Amino acid sequence: MRTLPSFPLRQRALLITGSLLVVALACMLYAGMTGSIRVAAAELPAALRQLLEGRPQSLAASLLELRAGRALVAFVTGGALALAGVLMQALLRNPLADPYILGISAGASVGALAALLLMAALATVELAAVGGAIAVSLLLYLLARQDLRGGAGVGGGTSTLLLTGVVISSLCVALITLMLSIAPEGRLRSMVFWMIGDLAGAPVRLLPWLVLGGALLYALRHARGMNVMALHADAAVTLGVHVGSLRRGLFFISGVLTASAVTSAGSIGFVGLIVPHACRFAFGPDHRVLIPAAVLAGGSFLVLCDTLARTVVAPQQLPVGAVTALIGAPVFLYQLHRLRRS
Question: For a FRET experiment, which of 88, 208, 222, 279 has its CA 20 to 30 Å from that of 289?
C-alpha cells in the first residue's frame, strides 16, 4: 500500500485535504469556463467579480453562473456517493463494496420511475425517490437487523445483510424493467436518462449539502471506530468500539447519502466504488484521512465527468452516468490488476 512520506497524522491530513481542495476549486473553475462557448481566462476575474456582487451583466458572468450551478450539484452528488462508498466498505469490511450494493438506489429508482411514468412534477419525482430509498432501507433493516446489532461474532456479521440487499435489488430491477416495458414513447427517454444518471436541469438545493455535511461530521467522529473494526474486527468490542451502534449508523448514513445522490442526479455508477478505492491506494486506509479525501476527490471526479458529458459531443449532452462508467470500468480493472501484482 502506497502512502505519503511519514508526516505526523494531523499534518498529513491537512496536506492531503488542502491539496484536494485546491484541485476541487480548479475543477469547478474549469467546468465554469468550458462549454460550447468558452470563457477566456482573461474574462474570468471580471466575471467572478460580477457574480460575487450578484450582478452578472456580461456573457461570461452569465455562463459562469449557469455552469457553476450544475458543477455544484455534480460536486455534492459525487462527494455523497464517494462518502457512501467509504462507509459501505467499512460496514461490509470489503473494499469492493459500493453504495448501490444493498439495493437502496434501486428502491429510489423504482419510486422515481413510477412517478415519471405517471407524469408527476419534479418535486413529486424527488419525493418518490426518497420514499423508495427509505422503504428499501427499512425493509433491509427489518430483515437483517441481527447483522447490524454486532455482538460477539463481530468478524462475520454482514452476510445476511449483503444477501438480502442483493435479493431486494433484483426485485427492484424487475419492477424497473416492467415499468420501462410499459412506458409510453414520450416518457421513456426521460426515464432511461434518469436511470443512467443525468445532471441536466438538476436544481441547486441546500438539503444535499446539509446531508453531506452532517454525514461527514458523523464519519469523522467515528473514524477511529471504523479503523478498529477494519483491522481488529474480532476484538473491536474489547477495544471500546460499540460495534452494533456503529454498524447501524454506517448503514443508515450511507443509505441517506445514496438516497440524496440518487434523488439529485439519478443512478450514477462507479463513483462510490473507484474513488474510495483509489484514495485508499494513494493515501492509505486510515479513515481519518480517507474520509475527507474521498469526499473531495469524488466531487472533483464527477464535476470533470459532467463537463465531459456536456462538451464531448456538444451541443448534444450525454448522461453523466455513462461517462463515469466508461472511465470507471477501465480504471477499476487497472486498480485490481495492480492490487494482484502487489
Answer: 208
